[in-house]
Structures are given as C-alpha cells and as structure tokens.
Structure to design on (641 residues):
C-alpha cells in the first residue's frame, strides 16, 4: 500500500535515489535515448536520463525531439520496458549431454538474476507485469527463469504526464497513474518529484533520501497534470470486455480488410508488454554430443506458431490477425480475468503498416456499448 | 572415431556466383576441422580438394545456372548426390545476375563486352531448383556459417533441418533493435524478408535490403504502399524488390507491379 502523504524530492536530489538503489545492491536501469528511441539501459547518473526529450508517436511512426522542458520523464513509452527483463527474448532452458557411456544427462541452465531496479516504469507496464505474472507464475507450472528474475526486481514508477497520441490506457483502466505494483512511485513536477513508497523495500530506500513533506500546492499540481494526461488521450477501445462482440463477428469482412494491410511481421506481438508466446528449439552442437533447448519469443503471426502435425491451422494473415485480437481482447478474459490490452499503444506506433488496434476493434465489434 | 570410408561424403560445388557463400565454410576456422572429422570433404575447389564428378551424400551448391554448360553440370551433380543443398541468393533465387531476366533483350551484352560473340549465356538465369530437385535451400547473400553448421548437423542426425522462414522483424525485436522503418522512416524490407541473418543490417541502424529473399506469407503490396507513404517513387520501390533476390517469385512480382505503375504514370503524365 502507498503511504498516505507523499514526500517531495527536489530535482537536484534524484541522483540520491539512484545512489541509494546502487548502494542497496541493485543494478539500476533507466530510460535513455538510444538509436532514436527511449530504451532502458544501465543507469548510474541522472545525466544519462533523456532530459527535455519529447516523443511524437502516430500509427507506424515514432520520433524524438528536443525541448527546453527541464523534465527527465516528459515522454510516453518507447518500444520496450519490462517484458524483456523478465521474459528473455532468447534463452536456453536446459541442456542435454550424451556421456561417453551413452547415458543422457539433462541439466537446467543457470538463471542470471541480478537484483535489478528499474526507474521510470509506467502504469501501463505495471498492469502488463501483473498479467505476465499471472501467466508465468501460475502454479503448478511456474516458470523458474521468470520467477527468479521477478523476485529480484525493484520498480520505481513514474506517473505518466505526456501520453502519446497512440496511448489509450485511460480506456483500459490502466493509467496514467501507477496505483499498485511498484516499490516507489514518482510524480515529476518542474522542480522535483512527489515520491511515495509502495512496499517495505521502497520505504527503506525512501528513509535514506533528503525528503520534505509535499505541499498541498505540489499535490494539486500533480493532480492537474494527471487530469491533463487523461484529457489528452483520444483513442479508446469500444469496451472493457469485447469477448462476446469479437466471437460473434468471426466472419466479419473487416478481418480480410485488415489482413490486406497487415504485414504479419510480428512487430505488434514483440512490442506488446503482455504477449507471451514462445517457440522452443533444440540447438545441438556440431559434435552431436550435446544440445540446448532454447526458448525464444514467437508470435501468432508466424506459420510455425499454428503448425500442428502436418497441418497449418492459420495459413493466412486474416486468421492470424483474428487469432491475435480475439485472444488479446476476448478469450484473455477467460484465461486471466481481464483483457490482455493495457492501452500502452505500442502495437499502434511500432506497426510498420500503422494498423491501429482501437480502430480495428471498433470496426469489428460495432459502435454499440460493450461491458 | 569411425573409419574414414564410413564417413558421409560432402562436395561443395560452384556455379555462377561470387564465391562468397563458400566463405561460410572457410570462415569457420577450427570448426571446419571438426567438420572434416565428421565428413569427408571430397570436392571443394576453393579449399583444395578436387573431384567434381564424385558421388557424395551431401552436395552444397553455390551459384545460379546462367550458361549452357552449367545446365549439364548441375544434372551430373544431382545424379551424384543423395542430398542437394543450394546455398545463397544465387542458388536459391538466381542472385544479382538474374536482374538480366528483367531486361527485354540482350543488347546490354554489346554494351558490356568488347566481343559479345565470345559470351555463351542462357536467355534466362535460373536458381538451382529451376533445373533439378533441391532437397534443402539455405537463403542469404551470403549464407552464414551458422546456417551451414546447422544443416550439416541435422543431416548427420538424419533429421529434417529447421526451415527458417519467419520475417526478419521477429529476430530484430528479439535483439531489442529499434525499428528503423518506424523510428527513421527508412524503407526496410524486414517485414517481408526471411530471417536467418540475425537482423544484421537493422542491428547497425540500416534498413534490411532483402538478401535472404521472401519470408513465408509476405505482404509485398502492403509494404510497397508503406514505402510509397515514405515518399518512394514507384521505380525506387521496384528496386527494393528487384535487387539481390529479384528472381524469387514474390519479389519478382512485387517489383513488376511497381514498374507497371511507373509506366502508367508516364503514359498518363505525357
């Protein structure tokens, strides 16, 4: 639970937070400009943060631009945040070796799980994390690799004040403010941060920082920023639960229309913070005496993903896009008790063809009211 | 160690090509010695062994068929081989030389060569599969060592080699690369191109130019429309498809559609 009254951390003191996390034994990651986008990378100094950077996003379009804004977090999410830190894009799960006497020896691969603190996590990604937790940590087949990394994760959220044109977290109920799932939550103001802890570990870090109680004016300022961020979002899904509407429209002509535009390239599923599908491959060494079992990110947009014993279930883009959308916004409800979309808008911005999930869902489900 | 005679026999043949794909073997270094312990390399001119007519278990074939003698030679290679594996863009799609299939006549011969009558070429360049049955195709310009080793290992195990046919984008995102099409507006061929290169060009901030040929289920029309949106003229779009793997049917057709558009524009524009 968050503490009732937030503290205030002056802008000049943010370095203390990074230092405190490093002193507590965390590898610190934070947003930085890389190759024209905001990515998460090793962070030791506030000077690495994307000072004054704004992003311009539209379907199939992402650009950063400079401004005189004194803020470090005046941007909406880049292509990735937490997913690759927990669900590794490629990793060996186990290895089999054939010993000299012919006996096969199986061994688990070590999981590198360094204590890691991530600064700058947005509310949509915290909501996505909860969904990934539900998938990877559900007994009786909890994923050991995911669990080990998850247990070592410390999250510093930053409430979103600059949603992109492609964002729609308000419509999914997942933002723009972080409400749960963080260790520390920040609201960035021009002269500093409202700061509060959401866990005992977070409270311990806060205790070492030079905080003063936030003033009523500062709290009101943060609230007005949030109100503006909410008002700034123009995209929305046509309802929270589209399961019935989607499955009632499996033969809608729109599926073919979107398939004509869709590249079936899997960029949407790769940048989606909740998509979890993978493929598993045996990678033998040349001698033929050992082989690694490697898991890597896959996608419902590939042929192999729907191949079953000599039969391809989804041979074309129409059926693959339909699989993605009906799962993400429909059958996800049965599996995990909610929609698989957290409104981050990444699949809209990073689709090379500029396909907009909110537009497609609205066209297929119709304009009427849904739950 | 098994007797030398019991080891599978391997040949590496070259047809019309630049020899670059054979470097996927030579660049292996020590691993090539390991391969030489697992198989007998009986013919590999670039590396030394010469026995072009030898019967082998696996024949790797580099290059396209572009001359009359190559038409005959590939038949003999096929007859002498249990498994025929074509390697590289030339062998799988005709390569850069199949651009001449798009020319309407052979006038260029006279422009390029002082004595065109010395040149014996076929009217059309074809990939290896255009002449004989091919058991496995490894795409790329050039193919890389990982593809070669993976194929040899699978064949030694007696299992079907893994077919890599997803789009480059999937590998690009697994490597956490920032999309050069979305973030830079460059006309990247990744969304229609076959994976296998390790997203090499995008990992250096460059747009993919399609050297691994078409992926499965490529939507070339949608990508061409996207390139148009980025400001590319029809002939520039055609050149994206008509490059190293212009002979692959999906890219061949996509490029021709753009050339037709250009022609129509000219006709209408006067």
């Amino acid at each position: 639970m968050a503490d009732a009254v937030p503290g205030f951390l002056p802008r000049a003191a943010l370095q203390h937070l990074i230092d405190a996390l490093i002193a507590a034994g965390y590898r610190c990651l934070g947003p930085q400009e890389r190759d024209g986008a905001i990515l998460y990378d090793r962070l030791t100094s506030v000077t690495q943060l994307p000072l004054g950077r704004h992003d311009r996003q539209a379907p199939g379009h992402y650009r950063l631009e400079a401004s005189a804004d004194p803020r470090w977090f005046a941007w909406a999410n880049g292509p990735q945040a937490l997913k690759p830190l927990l669900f590794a894009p490629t990793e060996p799960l186990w290895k089999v070796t054939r010993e000299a006497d012919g006996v096969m020896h199986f061994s688990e691969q070590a999981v590198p799980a360094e204590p890691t603190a991530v600064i700058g996590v947005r509310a949509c990604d915290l909501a996505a994390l909860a969904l990934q937790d539900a998938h990877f940590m559900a007994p009786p087949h909890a994923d050991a690799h995911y669990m080990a990394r998850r247990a070592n994760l410390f999250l510093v959220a930053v409430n979103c004040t600059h949603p992109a044109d492609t964002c729609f977290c308000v419509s999914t109920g997942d933002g723009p403010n972080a409400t749960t799932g963080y260790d520390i939550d920040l609201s960035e103001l021009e002269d500093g941060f409202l700061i509060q802890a959401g866990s005992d570990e977070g409270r311990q870090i806060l205790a070492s920082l030079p905080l003063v109680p936030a003033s009523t004016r500062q709290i009101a300022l943060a609230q007005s920023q949030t109100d503006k961020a909410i008002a700034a979002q123009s995209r929305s899904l046509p309802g929270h639960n589209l399961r019935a509407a989607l499955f009632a429209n499996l033969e809608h002509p729109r599926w073919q229309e979107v398939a004509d535009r869709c590249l079936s390239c899997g960029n949407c599923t790769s940048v989606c913070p909740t998509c979890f599908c993978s493929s598993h491959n045996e990678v033998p060494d040349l001698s033929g005496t050992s082989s690694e079992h490697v898991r890597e990110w896959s996608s419902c947009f590939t042929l192999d993903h729907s191949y079953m014993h000599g039969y391809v279930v989804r041979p074309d883009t129409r059926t693959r896009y339909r699989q993605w959308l009906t799962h993400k916004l429909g059958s996800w409800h049965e599996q995990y008790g909610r929609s698989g979309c957290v409104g981050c808008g990444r699949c809209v911005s990073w689709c090379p063809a500029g396909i907009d999930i909110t537009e497609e869902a609205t066209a297929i489900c119709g304009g009427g009211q849904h739950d | 160690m098994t007797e030398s005679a019991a080891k599978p026999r391997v040949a590496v043949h070259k047809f019309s090509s630049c020899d670059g794909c054979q470097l996927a073997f030579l660049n292996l270094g020590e691993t090539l010695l390991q391969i030489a312990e697992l198989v007998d390399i009986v013919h590999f001119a670039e590396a030394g062994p010469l026995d072009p007519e030898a019967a082998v278990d696996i024949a790797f074939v580099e290059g396209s068929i572009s001359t009359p003698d190559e038409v005959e030679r590939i038949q003999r290679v096929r007859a002498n081989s249990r498994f025929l594996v074509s390697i590289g863009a030339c062998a799988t799609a005709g390569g850069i030389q199949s651009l001449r299939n798009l020319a309407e006549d052979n006038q260029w011969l006279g422009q390029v060569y002082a004595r065109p009558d010395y040149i014996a070429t076929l009217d059309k360049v074809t990939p290896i599969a255009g002449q004989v049955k091919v058991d496995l195709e490894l795409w790329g310009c050039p193919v890389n060592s990982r593809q070669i080793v993976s194929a040899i290992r699978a064949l030694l195990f007696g299992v079907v080699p893994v077919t890599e046919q997803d789009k480059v984008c999937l590998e690009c995102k697994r490597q956490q690369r920032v999309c050069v099409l979305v973030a830079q507006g460059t006309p990247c061929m990744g969304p229609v191109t076959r994976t296998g290169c390790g997203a090499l060009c995008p990992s250096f901030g460059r747009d993919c130019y399609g050297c691994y040929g078409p992926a499965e289920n490529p939507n070339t029309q949608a990508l061409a429309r996207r390139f148009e949106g980025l400001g590319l003229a029809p002939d520039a779009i055609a050149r994206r498809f008509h490059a190293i793997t212009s002979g692959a049917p999906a890219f061949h057709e996509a490029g021709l559609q753009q050339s037709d558009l250009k022609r129509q524009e000219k006709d209408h524009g006067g």
User: Anything to note?
Assistant: Chain B has a mean pLDDT of 94. Chain B has two domains: 4-157, 168-269. Chain B touches chain A at residues 31, 34-35, 38, 149, 152-153, 156-157, 162, 165-167, 169-170, 173-179, 181-185, 188, 190-192, 205, 216-217, 219, 221-223, 225-226 (CB under 8 Å). Residues 249-269 of chain B form the longest helix (21 residues).
